[in-house]
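Revision sheet: structure tokens.
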Amino acid sequence: MILRLAPALIVTLLVGPILAGLAMAILPAFGYLPALGGNAFSLAPWRQLFAQPGLWRSVAISLASGLVTTAVSLVVVLLFQAAATGSRLDHWIRRLVSPLLSIPHAAAAFGLAFLIAPSGLMARLVSPGLTGWERPPDLLIVQDPWGLSLMAGLIIKEIPFLLLMSLAALPQLDPQRRVAIARSLGYRPTIAWLKVVAPVLYPLIRLPVYAVIAYATSVVDVALILGPTLPPTLSVSILTWFNDPDLSRRFMASAGAVLQLGVTASALATWWCLERLVARLGRGWINRGGRQSGEQPLRLVGKGLILFAALTAFVGIGSLALNSVAGFWRFPDALPQGFTAAHWLRAVPALSRPVTSTAIIAAASTLIAVVLTLAALENEQRTGHPPAQGRLLSALGLLYLPLIVPQIAFLFGLVVVMESLGTRPQHGLVIFGHLLFVLPYVFLSLSEAYRRFDPRWSRLALTLGASRNATFWRVRLPMLTAPLLTAMAVGLAVSIGQYLPTQLLGAGRVSTVTTEAVALAAGGNRRVIGVWALVQACLPLVGFTIAIGLPRLIWSQRRGMRGVP
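Predicted:
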């Protein structure tokens, strides 16, 4: 009975809060919110919104951020796979995907800021020898008015996500056979991959691409760290209006949330039109042949860009670590004059409560997501209905719904719903908010391995007299230990990186490492920021370390088990 209810429960959890949140964001946007004195519909919130200075520049930056970030990230991923599939670099990058994906967006943003700031590590390494700078240059690099640093920070984080989604989809296409056939017709490897694999791969990763567009157009934490300030991005402005002591500005915040939904929808519509244009141009490019032209530049660019992105991410984290233990460090010295643990010793007392809250929220939301996912997948196996036969969860778009709908658009309304129900901000409410985003990632991470599990193991256990429940607990689950732990690690990483659900549903009363680290962005103390951002970056790595090491320890005396997907 419980197994049969699991798919419907997942759909309800994913769809219900989003629809309720959107409804309660739309009503105040048109002046109706009796709790704040809005007893009649009105266009006053929209007039107030459109009167805000710099609004359309905020909209333009948000729109451009979504499109540019997605386009660059997708091109880098496709060129890398075309240029390096099967090479040592390919195997090396595949091993780095999980660590790169586990770095929270805010930590990656802080790392990039410490690298590219006028007094950052990059400027120090080339000064004064190459630049002549004895003092930090008067350049607005971080939080530049065009949002370029914001887009760079997002690109660094979205490349691993799209690469992981691509690697998960590729086995369905048998790319080696496709490339081999193209090679037999005289095509070079990189050109062959782009012409015969990329066109059939993209439809399989379209929804993840749309999720990247939605996230990049409405991101808050990265925009607070790297985005422009005068004016800020639309999502940051909405959060500012929502937190304003003047409660009447919540009507304008609701109108802004609806506008953000329109901006994201416009970005998705623009991308859909670009898809049609690229498909038409691509067919002409494929039909023209060109078996070898451009092979070498494409290969160099494909390998170089992915290496640059990976190294930037890791060097950025290294910069956080360096700043967290730096003593006196004057410009343009490449390294501090001394190192100290004083920053850590001062931060440790303040770290304990946020770290505990982060661990509780991440563990609870991930555990609930894993239980629901296992129940739904096991029910799918027992009923014998593959995901393509119209089951509730076969509509993969439902899993991506919390990722495609902008967080700021429905979380604001969800807060209004919870306030109307008399629910007080507490850990339970924040866990529920995190579950909306953890559940899709856990399901997507575990579903492929679960569905590919060899059914003969279960049949063998059943023929030996084991019940279906015993087969699940004693055969299927132990043999799927590695992918299960990996899915849990992904869920923990997603939860640890959540800023907006914690900030809104917790009403500022539930502090996590992420909310505290982002709050420090307004200050100028790089040492303290380095400590908090490094702790935030390291917490997800604990989960991935356990996910990788525990199966090897458990099956160290059973080598045959290592081959189980």
